[in-house]
Amino acid sequence: MQPVNLRSFRQKVATYKRRMRGFLTRIEKTPPRGLDAMVKEIDGEVWQETDCLSCANCCKQMTPTFTTKDVTRISKHLEMSAKDFREKWLYLDRNGDWMNKSTPCQFLDQKTNMCGIYEVRPADCAGFPHLTKKKMTDYMQWHKQNIAYCPATFRMVEKLMARVAELKK
Question: What burial class does residue 13 get, using C-beta atoms within 10 Å of its C-beta: 0-12 exposed, 13-18 middle, 19+ buried?
């Protein structure tokens, strides 16, 4: 497993993001046969190659959505009320979702890239980057977004593009 070089990753994103988003839009409209199985196989490969602790770009650049259950669980872990937790760390966005007030995430240790509340982290964090949801096409909009932030998502799309190209031969 190679450590993630964020500078190199950002350069790749700048070069390929538009092409990748177009590809994802096309397979969203006309998914190849066996897409979900293909992504499941690719998922295993991607996680053999990706070292999240050398990256933590998601925690540095994005914010999860906090559910009511997340707020309750995390505030209890931190020995504070849910109300105090929301007031200290979160804001309600225009969609009615609780989000971090700032990035990077307040729970990220930037020296180690480890989460200070990993065992009780938000469900959104636990599921990120959502590569193998049951129906790939239902999460296409998230993959289009996440290729710019997550090297694992970027790599998944690279591999998927190659597999789909092979199917067309």
Answer: middle
Low-confidence ranges of the chain (pLDDT < 70): none
DSSP secondary structure, 93-154, as one string: -TTS-EEESSSS-TTEETTTTEETTGGG--HHHHHTT-TT-SSGGGGHHHHHHHTTT-HHHH
- Sign of the four-CA dihedral 83, 105, 65, 122: negative
User: With b meaning 16 or more CB within 10 Å and e meaning fewer, what string describes 109-141?
Assistant: eeeebebebeebbbebbeebbebbeeebbebbe
Q: What pTM does this model have?
A: 0.90
pLDDT at residue 3, rounded to an integer: 87
Q: Kindly report the length of the chain.
A: 169
